[in-house]
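Support reply, case 0932

Customer input (verbatim):
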Amino acid sequence: MSQVDYKRYIEVDPNVRFGKPVLKDTRITVYDVLQWLASGMTQQEIIEDFPQLSEEHILACLAY
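Our regenerated output:
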């Protein structure tokens, strides 16, 4: 697993999802991604369900 600069992928905007950290250009929160991983979803399953995401997005959530 490589290290990713999460600042390239994650932003906080008080007008989006109540200011929770989200993946840029989406309304998907870091918490959402971490919950999916904790519930047993694989990175590939998340990307299949949310094709706007990439492996780098998921790694950025883990780095955050």
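We compared this against your earlier run and they match. Two observations from our side: Strands lie at 10-12, 21-23. The chain has a mean pLDDT of 95. Please reopen the case if you see a mismatch on your end.
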